[in-house]
Design goal:
The chain has one domain (5-296): Purple Acid Phosphatase, chain A, domain 2. It is built from 8 helices and 14 strands. It has helices spanning 18-32, 67-71, 91-94, 145-150, 156-160, 180-187, 203-212, 250-253; strands spanning 5-11, 38-41, 81-83, 101-104, 107-109, 113-118, 121-126, 170-173, 216-219, 226-231, 238-243, 254-260, 263-269, 277-278. The strands form 2 sheets. An 8-stranded mixed beta sheet has the order 4-5-3-2-1-12-13-14.
Length: 308
């Protein structure tokens, strides 16, 4: 009997655009001729009830706040959506559920750090970004703008809970692993697009990738699509890293994988359904979509980097 097949989709920083993501999933289903079984969001989802919520950063208040319709039962997410926290979230609402919760039907917060088996896949996750000054400090209840900002930083005990994990199918992290841009530079592949700054990413996420050796890593935060492989030396497994753009346009904000059992057999960017990778092929910048001039501009009022 063949292993069960499923379509798993990673989505970049949603920033409140839930309607748009649903429309993209509709289009991808039509293009692939099959349902989307699982959606994984890499943080900065912004599941706020009100667009003028004082806990949202001023720069983000122009972004849509569509989650209220799902939380109040006016709309229902068509497919299961599981998300990690970024550094722009409703941290007050998430604080009492560090191990995750269901915020609305089919909308699941995974939690701050851990492992969850979803649809037969072993998914490890780390919410937030790295702020060295707060890494060893205890997490405070987010009762002010300042403590809410600090809630978007992961802490040492959270990272420690992950280091013993093995046999990970997908690692979800908000911030890139440090060193992947330099890895791409070393490969010397010509793609017609400028490379991001070499310092993007953090060493903690990189340590997790090097230790857990997940088969795939999905991350966001820097609002750029990126693709690189880590590992592969000797008998060390390869970890394929896919960095996702923010959900302003789908070309690099959506990355899908078709699984047979726990084996990813093919994948692609965007919602056209076009396959850009198949099992047995290498994973690098050459797997990204073709470059368009608009890819190097800001979109929807959010720049390429928002580390604050």
């Amino acid at each position: 009997m063949p292993p069960e097949s499923q379509l798993v989709v990673g989505v970049g920083d949603i920033h409140g655009r839930f309607h748009r993501v649903e429309a993209w999933m509709d289009a991808l289903e039509a293009a692939r001729g099959r349902p989307v079984d699982l959606v994984l969001a890499v943080g900065d989802v912004e599941a706020f009830r009100r667009p003028d919520d004082h806990r949202r950063k001023a720069a983000k208040r122009a972004m849509p706040a569509e989650f209220a319709e799902y939380a109040d039962g006016q709309r229902r997410m068509k497919r299961p959506l599981y998300f990690i926290g970024g550094n722009n979230e409703d941290f007050e609402a998430l604080h009492d559920s560090p191990g995750g919760c269901e915020l609305a039907p089919n909308v699941h917060y995974l939690g701050r750090a851990g492992m969850r088996q979803v649809n037969g896949l072993r998914i490890a996750y780390l919410s937030g970004i790295h702020a060295p000054r707060f890494f060893e400090q205890p997490l405070k209840r987010p009762t002010s703008l300042d403590t809410a900002k600090q809630a978007g930083y992961f802490r040492a005990p959270e990272v420690e809970t992950l280091l013993g994990l093995r046999d990970v199918d997908i690692l979800l992290a908000h911030e890139w692993p440090r060193g992947i841009v330099q890895r791409a530079r070393d490969e010397g592949l010509s793609t017609g697009r400028p490379l991001p700054s070499y310092w993007i990413g953090n060493p903690i996420t990189r340590r997790l990738v090097d230790t857990l050796r997940p088969r795939w890593v999905l991350c966001g935060h820097s609002h750029k699509g990126f693709a690189v492989s880590l590992g592969g030396e000797g008998h060390r497994p390869v970890s394929r890293v896919a960095c996702l753009d923010q959900a302003a346009r789908p070309d690099e904000a959506v990355f899908w994988l078709e699984y047979e059992g726990r084996e990813a057999v093919r994948g692609g960017w965007g919602i056209s359904g076009e396959v850009s990778w198949q099992a047995g092929e290498s994973w690098s910048l050459l797997r990204l979509p073709a470059v368009r001039p608009a890819d190097f501009t800001e979109a929807d009022g959010v720049g390429e980097m928002d580390p604050g």
